[in-house]
Design a protein that fits this description.
The complex is a heterodimer of chains A (633) and B (334). Chain A is α/β, with parallel strands linked by helices and 633 residues long.
């Protein structure tokens, strides 16, 4: 990722200037990319401010990636350390792969935000604070010991844009007729205005966005626009605490129509698209669980597309009811996170042996047990692959980015329907909550989905485990005359479909179920970077794609020969897996667990002994740390 | 199109000779023929246990799934395709122990689903452990000194979960079972039909007082909506209300006539008396209540799901994926 490097050289703050000096000699500097972190109380609207900033940037063709970092507490006391939520936005002149390690600008709407979020700021970062939220009480709540909070944090005051945001917002809206509470809700827009000034964003774009968003509440739109303008003007008039403002040009534009989308929303959209393509009703059986619930929320909204969602009594029923829906002929999905995956395992196994299509979405979070519900890990991989009784082969697909969640969900549904099998789709809290610019897909151009419905010609001779050429069982949906049959959890006779305990038959059925999954065609593993002469191959799976890509780019920019391969299909593995893994002198498998993919690959590829990079912190990788570790290999 | 009972029949049942499941299966075949839903529009879904083998003997669509989950699986099946007639076959262990949660929530949601609870008060397939309907003190392999826990009464669970239909019958009373199954199917919403049945191997005689015709004449009361609650070999006894409870009275004694006894109202929304009737037991000097104890109309879940989809379809302007995309904030990169 050249962006990060260029950023270091170009994005230099002058720390020798004095505070609030008006000057007409403000320079506009061009930077390759920039990370802004908005932070404040959960109710401060930081996500909205961040979203507007990223969307407006995307509108001019910048690459964007966002990541919310929200607290586990539902609504911690106002101003408390545990109540701070952050929203990080990374924009760049070209594609950006991650929400960025550390931020260039930190917006801290209160003392607690500064206290908890400063660690995410680069040493030279600009800090924007609302001085009205740094009173004695605020400082106490944030556990500052003195009133010299900057001193306590070791922050150079020259890097701080200290602005009485609350006061200025109230002044700005004095004639608006809004009550105090409503006015305070606009504080985030003042901060946004400041950030827009700092990065030379066109306020007309912001205004248009708000007028569309609040189309039904024009007064609110105008109030917000006024406040943003005030924030922008404040920056412009005082030149605040910066000698430079910055511009991010756009390179590598891919023309098209775009929207901002989170991974969870993209996943929901993928299922909707797949159901429409397959001509099936979409059924979701689910139980609320962080961080997967937004998929349930999203799908529950779209009844006008015929989507049926049932919020079940428990995780088990979520999966079980989806199996019932699948039997009845729907595209059936159940969504959950790790603890729910444990509970669904028995029912998932039923779908394995009944050979019914089903997608199990596991939005991974920190474990074990309740673990870190709002944080991200890749620790369910082996559970997804092997966490069931008996020989229970099940395809596993891992999405690589928020926008890839759409395609991964589509692919998982297609695979389930065409191969009559449950499929596990792994995402995680990081990509589920993070967002990226999503080029609107054209469903007509996407690959068709063709389930193996039992041909009418087989009437009279058909039995439930009769297989098509590729080993897939046919699907006979209730309602069709001549194809009544029974499925179940007990082993069945290969030929008659009746219950069978025959040893040879069980062995045969086990082999056939395995072969059916093994024979699924998945795309080859793609190698990028120095594909021919890399000295190091970086291997990962799923959501770490962006960070590993950025790490590779950084190493290559330093002249190292590096390649990477990211697994999206984990079971079955791509056919060229062994060839790729054995081709390079050094291989490191980097994952957010204790080595689950590395162990799995060692099991599958003879003689493969990779180096490992394992981190289980509930947070995304940090590119610099990856580079540092990989350079030592 | 009419079907015979044989057209719903498949295979040779493997239950023990004399098992109540045989009797019930024959009644189910008959009831389905009389109901007349095509075998290919019928799904019979069970969990695990002796009685859960039943779908294997049906020439309908069916699933013999995993322990306790039949109600949840049946729910998804019915919601995804409301045109199917869905039956759920469960035992007392499958339906009320491991599947208790799904049982109450199916009742609460009021899915249009026919739940049959074959109650022999024992785990038969695992060879004789007490079940959640075994009486306190019940001696079994897993309770050699007697159980120290209270049983469930299926009707109480059903009503506690706001269930709208509950009927009870005895497996050996084929004609009555057929009537109950037809009534259950005619009811829109979740129906629970409790079938009292014997386990000849592990719990022989558990329903002995009502298992044959003679016993039922003395020890059971057949409730029918709109009919006075009379029972006994010559209908010489009746049920009356007394204070907060019920009492058994003899017609002709103390000036009591047929007109004084309770008239059954299965359609009464208040389930208080339905509960009392369902809880009557021979041990307390009452007859065992058989028949449709409760049958109250209420909106069904599957209808409501479909109606809501239609409502939202009419209200919203986007009806396919391409239109859904357009509902977002979109920007164009040129």
């Amino acid at each position: 990722m050249n962006g990060i490097l260029q950023c270091r050289t170009l994005f230099i703050y002058n720390t020798t200037h004095n505070q609030n000096i008006m000057t007409d000699k403000l320079e506009i500097k061009e930077v390759a990319d920039i990370v802004v972190r908005f932070s404040g109380d959960s109710g401060d609207g930081m996500q909205l401010a961040g979203n507007i900033f990223s969307t407006v940037s995307a509108t001019v063709g910048n690459g964007i990636s966002t990541f919310p970092d929200y607290p586990a507490d539902i609504r911690a006391p106002q101003g408390s350390l545990t109540g701070v939520s952050g929203f990080q936005v990374h924009i760049g002149e070209g594609e950006v792969y991650t929400p960025g390690d550390l931020c260039d600008v930190l917006v801290a709407m209160n003392a607690a935000a500064l206290k908890t979020q400063y660690k995410y700021a680069k040493p030279q970062a600009t800090i924007i604070i609302d001085t009205d939220s740094f009173g004695k009480k605020d400082l106490d709540k944030a556990q500052f010991l003195t009133e010299d909070y900057l001193g306590e944090m070791g922050i150079d005051p020259d890097r701080v844009i200290a602005c009485p945001i609350t006061t200025m917002v109230k002044d700005c809206l004095a004639d608006s007729g809004m009550d105090n509470k409503a006015m305070l809700k606009c504080r985030n827009m003042f901060a946004l205005g400041l950030v827009c000034w700092l990065f030379s964003r066109d306020l007309d774009l912001v205004a248009n966005f708000l007028r569309e968003k609040f189309a039904k509440k024009p007064a609110i739109a105008e109030a917000n626009i006024n406040v943003i303008q005030a924030g922008y003007d404040y920056g412009h008039n005082t030149h605040s605490n910066a000698t430079n403002v910055y511009r991010i040009e756009t390179k590598e534009k891919v023309p098209g129509r775009y929207m901002d989308i989170t991974g969870n929303k993209a996943t929901a959209y993928g299922f909707i698209a797949a159901a429409e393509k397959a001509g099936l009703k979409l059924y979701l059986g689910s139980y609320p669980i962080t961080p997967a619930t937004d998929v349930l929320h999203e799908l529950a909204k779209h009844k006008s597309l015929g989507v049926t969602t049932v919020q079940c009594e428990d995780e088990i029923a979520g999966c079980a009811s989806a199996i019932g829906a699948s039997f009845a002929g729907a595209l059936a999905v159940t969504s959950t996170s790790g603890p729910g995956l444990c509970l669904k395992s028995e029912a998932m196994n039923l779908a394995v042996t009944m050979e019914l299509p089903l997608v199990i979405l596991d939005v991974q979070r920190g474990g074990p047990a309740t673990g870190l519900p709002t944080k991200s890990e890749q620790t369910d991989l082996l559970q997804a692959l092997f966490g069931r009784n008996g020989e229970s082969p099940m395809p596993v697909i891992a999405a690589t980015s928020p926008t890839d969640c759409f395609y991964a969900a589509y692919d998982a549904a297609k695979m389930a329907l065409e191969h009559m099998t449950p499929v596990i789709l792994l995402t995680d809290a990081y990509i589920a909550n993070g967002s990226g610019a999503f080029k609107l897909p054209d469903l007509n151009a996407m690959e068709g989905i063709n389930p193996p419905y039992v041909p009418e010609g087989l009437k009279g001779e058909w039995t439930p485990y009769m297989r098509a050429e590729n080993g897939t069982r046919y699907w006979a949906v209730p309602g069709r005359e001549g194809f009544t049959h029974i499925l179940g959890g007990l082993e069945k006779d290969d030929k008659t479909g009746a219950i069978s305990t025959d040893p040879e038959n069980h062995h045969l059925m086990t082999i056939k179920r395995q072969a059916k999954i093994d024979n699924i065609n998945v795309p080859d593993l793609e190698v990028i970077g120095d594909t021919e002469d890399a000295e190091l191959l970086i291997v990962g799976f799923g959501s770490t794609y962006g960070h590993l890509h950025a790490a590779m780019d950084e190493m290559r920019a330093k002249g190292k020969k590096v390649a990477m391969a990211q697994f999206r299909y984990i079971n079955p593995l791509p056919k060229n897996t062994a060839e790729v893994l054995m081709k390079y002198p050094k291989v490191v498998v980097a994952e957010q667990n204790m080595g689950q993919l590395a162990g799995y690959l060692r099991m599958k590829v003879d003689g493969f002994v990779p180096a490992q990079y394992n981190q289980v912190k509930g947070q995304p990788f940090i590119v610099n740390e990856l580079v540092e570790a990989f350079e030592k290999l | 199109m009419a079907f015979t009972a044989t057209e719903y029949k498949k295979g040779q049942p493997r239950w023990c000779p004399g098992c109540g499941d045989h009797f019930f299966l024959a009644s189910l075949h008959k009831a389905m023929a009389e109901i007349g839903t095509e075998p290919w529009n019928t799904a019979v879904i069970s969990g695990i246990g002796c009685s859960s083998r039943l779908p294997h003997y049906m020439a309908t669509y069916g699933m013999n799934t995993i322990h306790g989950r039949a109600a949840a699986i049946a729910t998804g099946c019915k919601v995804a395709n409301p045109d199917l007639t869905v039956w759920q076959i469960s035992g007392d262990g499958d339906g009320l122990a491991i599947g208790g949660n799904h049982f109450i929530h199916a009742n609460r949601r009021n899915i249009n689903l026919n739940i049959v609870l074959l109650n022999n008060r024992i785990y038969g397939l695992t060879k004789g452990q007490y079940s959640p309907t075994s009486p306190r003190g019940f001696v079994s392999k897993s309770s050699p000194y007697g159980t120290v826990e209270e049983p469930f009464y299926p009707a109480e669970l059903c009503f506690g979960a706001r269930g709208h239909f509950f009927a009870r019958t005895v497996a050996t009373d084929g004609a009555h079972t057929v009537e109950m199954l037809k009534a259950a199917n005619a009811h829109k919403g979740t129906s629970v039909t409790e079938v009292l049945q014997n386990c000849v191997i592990f719990n022989d005689g558990t329903h002995a007082s009502v298992y044959n015709k003679e016993g039922r004449a003395k020890n059971a009361i057949y409730l029918e909506h709109g009919k006075p609650m009379l029972f006994g070999e010559n209908l010489e006894y009746g049920i009356m209300q007394e204070g907060f409870g019920l009492k058994v009275v003899k017609i002709g004694e103390n000036g009591i006539t047929e007109n004084d006894v309770l008239v059954h109202d299965a359609h009464c929304a208040d389930n208080t008396l339905h509960t009392k009737l369902a809880l009557m037991g021979n041990g307390d000097g009452f007859p065992v209540a058989l028949g449709v104890i409760r049958d109250v109309e209420a909106p069904t879940y599957d209808d409501a799901v479909t109606a809501q989809i239609e409502e939202v379809k009419a209200a919203k302007k986007y009806h396919n994926f391409a239109e859904l995309l357009e509902t977002n904030d979109i920007w164009t990169v040129k």
